Amino acid sequence: MNPEFLSSTQGSLEHSISIEGITEPTILNYFENLNSANFDATAALFAVDGTLKAPFESPIVGREAIAAYLHQEAQGMILAPTQGIIEPQDDAFKVQVAGKVQTSWCGVNVSWIFLLNQQREILAATVKLLASPQELLNMQRSQSQ
User: Residues of the signal sequence (predicted)?
Assistant: First the structure.
């Protein structure tokens, strides 16, 4: 495992997000930027051909498409990650984070799975809702009203 990748970096005290088990600045910045509605900065954390896999959506590929999607869909979301782990892969790192997302109409438990390259760019981010089918149905009804 690359200790430099896992070590805390200078300036990490500036991060307002704290995730147990995670010190990687790219991941902390992802959550901070989204919570600040800084969607262009969030998209800039992705590799040029990075992919965002959001619930109920086809994969969104590329920084511009990700920024456009976030501007449209992520307004008013508050992400509250609580804990995570980093696992080494062949030429990348897999980061799993658990937490909650609050929208104007509901709150739901979520897991995020990130794949980072050696340059600490996000190759892929997958967002999974951790809700029962009935909870998902209730959320869909609430959103359509």
Answer: none
pTM for the model stands at: 0.81
In single-letter form, the type of residue at position 32 comes to E
C-alpha torsion sign, points 28, 100, 129, 32: negative
- 69: which residues sit within 8 A by CB, 6+ positions away? 52, 54, 57, 60
Q: Give me the CATH topology for the region 25-142.
A: Nuclear Transport Factor 2; Chain: A, (3.10.450)
Angle at the Cα of 66 from the Cα atoms of 95 and 111, rounded to 5 degrees: 30
CA-CA-CA-CA torsion sign (35, 61, 128, 5): negative
pLDDT digits (tens, 9 = 90+) for 92-109: 899 999 999 987 777 889
Give CA 119 to chain center in angstroms.
17
Name which residue leads in pLDDT, 11 or 145. 145
Amino acid at 54: A
Do residues 30 and 19 touch, judged by C-beta distance below 8 A? no
pLDDT of 108 reads: 87
